[in-house]
Amino acid sequence: MATRTLLVSKIKDGTVIDHITGGHALDVVKILGITGRTNGIVLIALHVPSKGLGTKDIVKVEGRELEQEEVDKIALLAPHASINIIRGYQVADKKRVKLPDIIRGTVKCGNPACISNSNEPVQSKFYVKSREPLVIRCHYCNYIMEKQDVLNQF
Ligand code: CTP
Ligand code: ZN
Known about the structure:
This protein is of the alpha+beta class and 154 residues long. It has helices at residues 25-31, 68-77, 147-153; strands at 14-21, 42-50, 54-62, 82-87, 90-96, 102-104, 125-130, 135-138, 144-146. The relative contact order is 0.17. It binds cytidine-5'-triphosphate and zinc ion. Zinc ion is lined by residues 109, 111, 114, 116, 138, 140-141, 143.
């Protein structure tokens, strides 16, 4: 397929999440809470040929800028994604997502007996063992979680 032409149109004001790991656009859409019943233009492109990554996905959301919590979740499943803020058709800001070595709060430990799941005020804390494929380990109980386990929570 010719990639010289623009596959999905430009947006006027909003956010473009670009360089999403191929196949994960629909997970990003879910993280953003977008359903067929939410308002506003949303453009989704799957398996677009890309120089660096093989294929990539793109999600464009008109009329919305993302919360940090949403960006932190996207980083877990698409660690190469870029977040482009669009204002008046121009890229006003471009940031790469960042997956830190230690993840606090974003993911819930899958071990029901873990202290981070008790009534104690203990925030979850995971060490990133591998980024792609994602593997994280709980600081408190050593429970290992993979990408699919994390996705099931979102
Ligand atoms: N984009 C858009 N609407 C606009 C402006 C940009 O949908 N009004 C999209 C582009 O199609 C691209 C992304 O936002 O997917 C980033 O735009 P730009 O920085 O111009 O593209 P590149 O230079 O290719 O980005 P990168 O270097 O991050 O690959
Ligand atoms: Zn745990």
